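Hi R.,

As promised, here are both runs. First protein below:
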Amino acid sequence: MTAPIPRDIPDLPPIPRTHALLPSFVLASAVVNPARRPLAAVLRLLLAATAAAGVTLALLAGGPLRVLSHFSVQSNLLLALVTFLSARRAWSAREPLPSLLTGAALLYVTITGLTYHLLLADATPPFSLTSATTAPTGWAAVTSHLLHTVTPAAAVLDWLLLTPPARLRLRQTATWMLYPSTYLLFLLTRAESITPGAPGRYLYPALDAEAHGFQRTLTNALLLGLACYALAVLLVALDHVRPAPPRHRAKTGFRLQPPVG
């Protein structure tokens, strides 16, 4: 007969209850270094320079306080800053900026382009960044074209061709709407601090309380806010269905050989 096997073997140490066999999660950046993207860096630097040039020309053509009060100028300033930082990160192989920031810059400059071409381009009197009452010509026309057409179109192309998809989130849209809502309040407060009848009291025809009445102006502001939110949701939806931009794969130095035999 064989002796019974004891429950505890004193010569062997107890096995600790660890979770070493469970999978551990490691950031991809800790394993694979982000690749440099010189082409994206150069293109984004050009976009930042274009937006900054449009803002500079606008400041040279009109009073700084009036020019900086325009949504188009503020959105282009934000776009210049965000794309410059994105260009630095792409050049130095660093992680991209948070989508909350890049999505906000894209949304605001897209609002600028759509609002101008749908509501302001054919307005009477013509929309102007300065106090002029005639259609912009010369450098004023170049400035308006840069701020309202070139930079919005270039920002959308940067998003489609140089930015990975599915980075924007629906929960970010509420945060993005804080700035347009605050800006609408700023416009109404600014108008109340200016003498009635003064030129340039209302920067945008749709928000002119003297011409439309306060109730109609608030209705227009609400409709504009809803349109901006709908545009934000649309950008998020498109970001999740658009194809990924083509990316160049870096050579690793390893090549697979055909099997022998």
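And here is the second one, sequence first, then its structure tokens:
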Amino acid sequence: MTTPGTPVIGVLALQGDVREHLIALAAADAVARPVRRPEELAEVDGLVIPGGESTTMSKLAVLFGMMEPLRERIAAGLPVYGTCAGLIMLADKILDPRSGQETLGGIDMIVRRNAFGRQNESFEAAVEVAGVTDGPVDGVFIRAPWVESVGAEAEVLAEHDGHIVAVRQGNALATSFHPELTGDHRVHGLFVDMVRAAG
């Protein structure tokens, strides 16, 4: 599927900041490509679920016939990384879901949508992330969720203001913030390493 050491990582391209993730993954030494259809999903070693609007993303995943293939591959161990809305998509439970909103699951956590406030309350903060070396990452929080609680299998990687903002469970990684918007590719590098290890 790939040359040794160079994983092919898809970015779910239904909605959200797809281009920025493609750039960040390429900078972290992966082959990056957009994924919109089940046959494209079958060709990747890992997948990023970008930020955007989680309700819209959920509906589009159903519309494009992607919801079940995504759930199946994630359940089978596909390495996956969700940012912001992607974190919500990877949660087993949403505290305050919109009507008809579905998730993919993969991380035993309960999340709260828009927990850090509205669009005009967006902010940046330095976040220490376990597994990322050389100091804190610059976290961009835009209508960001936070994680209310995690199950026994999930590992908390970062907190901000007493709230969980980064979690890992097995091959699934999720952050409330957007590292793809900063030019700092270390979180993507962590995920690329996860994909390599899984391969």
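A quick note on the second one: The two ends are 10 Å apart (CA to CA). Let me know what you think.

Best,
J.
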